[in-house]
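We were asked to recover a plausible sequence for a given structure. The inputs and outputs are reproduced exactly as logged, with field labels preserved.

PROBLEM: sequence recovery
POSITIONS: 110
GIVEN STRUCTURE:
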């Protein structure tokens, strides 16, 4: 059904380039290239907030409002999600700073 590991020749980004050229060598070389120009720190100090402010200044992920529904002569309260008049939280400072997701380092404990 499938190709075995010894016969299949796939792209593996961590393969060594000692075997010669080809697409495998190009991918492995790109993984080792350092960005030129300004140095980017490995830490992230801020992020976009995932919460919202409502009209009253309350902060939450979701807002609901209670509505009264009359069905078959019975009054019933339902919660309806509010989508209008919400202001995004904006930029949030991280304390402590996090390591950037694209930072090419393997962390391990000894």
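RECOVERED SEQUENCE:
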């Amino acid at each position: 059904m499938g190709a075995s590991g010894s016969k299949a020749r796939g792209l593996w980004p961590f393969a060594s380039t000692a075997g010669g050229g080809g697409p495998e060598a190009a991918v492995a070389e790109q993984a080792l290239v350092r960005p030129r120009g300004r140095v980017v720190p490995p830490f992230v100090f801020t992020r976009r907030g995932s919460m919202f402010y409502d009209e009253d200044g309350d902060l939450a992920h979701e807002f609901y409002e209670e509505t009264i529904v009359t069905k078959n002569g019975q009054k019933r309260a339902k919660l309806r999600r509010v989508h209008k008049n919400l202001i995004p939280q904006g930029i949030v400072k991280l304390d402590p700073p996090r390591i950037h997701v694209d930072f090419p380092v393997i962390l391990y404990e000894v």
